[in-house]
């Protein structure tokens, strides 16, 4: 084990804004050494990193906390305007959906950081997106209620204010953290209606690109992903 987020805050290596999500992020829990190393490389040294560790070893924290740190620092400096700062790229929707659950839990008490998932499952219109979101949430709560006796209110069925759930809302005010898959990224790069993510006044702040499960990109598929990433980097 290594340092805690709390000790990194005291040392000036992490934003004080982490205190706002202290409970969800458990900032007093010691990080693993590979998590602390990744944080320092990304947040302080501005380096690129590859994290190669076993299943369940906390790879998400290796990239999520440095991204949070950068966004929190921008927020402290009143520079956190709408626009993508981090793209999290996944090989399949199920992984992106799991990450959305993590983001909801971590950012419940930090509405200044916005996030959204743009995949083939994402609804175009806000009203339809909210309707679908509430239906799925209600189904989840009912399933939990049968097993654990968990109760819920109408408020529990609504998305967080900082979770952008429709394509039209993400185009109007691009989220700071965007989750998608490589097939959808291909479409985003070529569709005129999605240019707001890459061009214009809200598109000049890109900083992070995360390829989760990078070991799956091999063979012909790996070559296609490599070319896709080059196109993205050229665009932004």
Summarize the SSE layout with pairings.
Layout: H1 5-10, H2 22-25, H3 33-44, H4 59-76, E1 86-90, H5 93-107, E2 115-117, H6 126-148, E3 163-164, H7 167-172, E4 177-181, H8 182-190, E5 208-211, H9 219-235
Parallel strand pairs: 1-4, 1-5, 2-3, 2-4
Notes on the structure:
With 236 residues, the chain is an alpha/beta fold. 47% of the residues lie in helices and 8% in strands. The protein has helices at residues 5-10, 22-25, 33-44, 59-76, 93-107, 126-148, 167-172, 182-190, 219-235, and strands spanning 86-90, 115-117, 163-164, 177-181, 208-211. It has a 5-stranded parallel sheet with strand order 3-2-4-1-5. Helix 3 (33-44) runs parallel beside helix 4 and helix 8 runs parallel beside helix 9. The longest helix is centred in the middle third of the chain and has 23 residues, at 126-148. The mean pLDDT is 94.
Helices and strands, in N-to-C order? HHHHEHEHEHEHEH
- What is the number of E strands? 5
Strand content: 5-15%
N→C terminal distance: 37 Å
Keywords:
236 residues; 47% helix
Summarize the structure.
With 236 residues, the chain is of the alpha/beta class. The chain is 47% helix and 8% strand.
């Amino acid at each position: 084990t290594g340092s805690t987020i709390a000790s990194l805050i005291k040392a000036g290596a992490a934003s004080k804004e982490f205190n706002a999500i202290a409970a969800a992020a458990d900032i007093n829990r010691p990080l693993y050494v590979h998590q602390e190393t990744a944080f320092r490389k990304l947040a302080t040294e501005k380096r690129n990193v590859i994290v190669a560790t076993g299943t369940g070893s906390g790879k998400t924290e290796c990239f999520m906390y440095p991204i949070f740190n950068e966004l929190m620092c921008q927020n402290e400096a009143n520079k956190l305007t709408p626009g993508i700062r981090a793209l999290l790229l996944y090989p399949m929707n199920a992984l992106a959906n799991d990450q959305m659950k993590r983001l909801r839990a971590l950012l419940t008490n930090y509405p200044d950081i916005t996030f959204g998932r743009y995949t083939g499952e994402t609804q175009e219109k806000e009203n339809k997106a909210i309707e679908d979101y509430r239906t799925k949430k209600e189904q989840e709560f009912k399933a939990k209620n049968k097993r654990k006796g968990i109760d819920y209110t109408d408020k529990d069925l609504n998305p967080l204010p900082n979770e952008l759930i429709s394509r039209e809302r993400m185009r109007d005010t691009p989220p700071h953290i965007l989750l998608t898959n490589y097939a959808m990224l291909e479409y985003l790069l070529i569709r005129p209606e999605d240019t707001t993510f890459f061009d214009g006044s809200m598109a000049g702040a890109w900083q992070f690109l995360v390829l989760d499960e990078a070991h799956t990109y091999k063979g012909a598929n790996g070559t296609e992903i490599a070319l896709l990433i080059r196109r993205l980097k050229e665009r932004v």
